[in-house]
Design goal:
mainly alpha, transmembrane, flat, transmembrane helix, membrane, 72% helix, single chain, 351 residues
């Protein structure tokens, strides 16, 4: 195998585990923000320090991120990567939670747009990660590098279990490496073979369990039949939530909110109107075409996640996260159903 043709100006290779690493980073970032906000609310926003001294929790976020970097610099193996992604996520969430202090002249932690801006940052990170992961498949060179990385981990842990066997064989097969090189990799790994039972992390076990249950629900005939009703209910729910959000934001003088209409007021009204119109058009235009109707439903949920939720975070702050979770689950469910429904049906005459 000629590796020279894979040379680039920036010789970076993507990690095959980058999806789960990015997921851990984002999940822990969100959890840290939620934990901090809930803790501060329950404890009436205590100040760490005395007198004029105030140790902002942004500093703890910096310490966690620095620790994650040190782990990456001074460790070899997957365990260091996973630990650094967790600590880095916790640190990033702790850091960005104080964003309001650094974008306002009076260092206002409670600056209302902060949560919406933080949400926007996470959306951007998600799309950056997704672009890096799915823009193109791994090259043979990257598969070989990942195989080498796995071999280092096997040597470091002195543990070559059944899962490592499967993974190493897969990586080497995809790498198009010379058979002699493949054999050498296997021989080295075999020296660390163990009979210990492979134990999956609790996080992955929980994730797999929830995903299985979720798939069982959405693949039922009942769920598919209820989709139209769910989206009709969603129309009224969104209209109601917008009304309540504006009412709570305006206080007693509800109609005063329309006297000074700003960016966020226009944004939440326009985005709510748009996502509901998309659903109505899908229901009206494709009464008999389920697949096309689902495409419109998916577009509506995507528009909601990208735009409506952003404005919802401004008015409802962290409570908007419940609506976001429901929209993500709905989008995920529709996307799976579309992928199943769009597959060509097998012809029994050709079997």
């Amino acid at each position: 195998m000629n590796l020279k043709k894979y040379k680039t100006r920036i010789p970076l290779a993507r990690n095959i585990d980058s999806a789960i690493l990015a997921e851990l980073f984002l999940v822990n970032s969100v959890l840290s923000i939620l934990a901090i906000r809930v803790f501060l609310s329950l404890t009436d926003y205590p100040q760490l320090g005395g007198g004029d001294l105030h140790i902002a929790h942004m500093l703890w976020g910096g310490i966690l991120m620095t620790t994650a970097i040190f782990i990456l610099l001074f460790s070899i193996g997957k365990s260091g990567l996973f630990l650094s992604s967790i600590l880095g996520g916790l640190g990033f969430g702790t850091f960005i939670d104080e964003l309001g202090k650094f974008i306002t002249s009076d260092n206002d932690y409670f600056f209302r747009p902060t949560i919406a801006i933080i949400y926007l940052v996470f959306v951007m990170l998600f799309f950056i990660f997704r672009y890096m992961l799915v823009r193109r498949p791994l090259s043979p060179r990257e598969y070989l590098i990942n195989a080498s990385d796995l071999l280092k981990d096997i040597i470091a842990t002195e543990d070559y279990d059944i899962e490592d066997v499967k993974k190493l064989n897969f990586l080497l097969d995809q790498s198009e490496a010379d058979p002699k090189l493949k054999e050498l990799f296997i021989q080295i790994a075999q020296k660390f073979k163990t009979d210990r039972e492979y134990k999956q992390s609790k996080y992955l076990i929980l994730k797999k369990f929830l995903r299985t249950k979720f798939l069982q629900i959405i693949h039922t005939k009942r769920f598919k039949e209820l989709l139209n009703s769910i989206f009709i209910f969603r129309i009224f729910f969104i209209l109601g939530s917008v009304t309540v959000s504006l009412f709570l934001y305006a206080g007693k003088n509800f109609f005063d909110i329309f006297s000074e209409v700003g960016f966020f007021e226009v944004g939440i009204l326009f985005s709510a109107f748009t996502i509901n119109v998309i659903v109505i058009l899908g229901l009206y235009r494709y009464k008999t075409n389920t697949l096309k109707r689902l495409y419109w439903f998916r577009t509506s949920t995507l528009f909601s996640i990208l735009f409506f939720t952003f404005f919802s975070f401004y008015f409802n702050q962290l409570s908007a996260i419940f609506g976001l979770v429901m929209e993500i689950l709905l989008y995920y469910a529709i996307d799976i159903i579309i992928s199943v429904e769009s597959k060509p049906k097998s012809n029994p005459l050709t079997n």
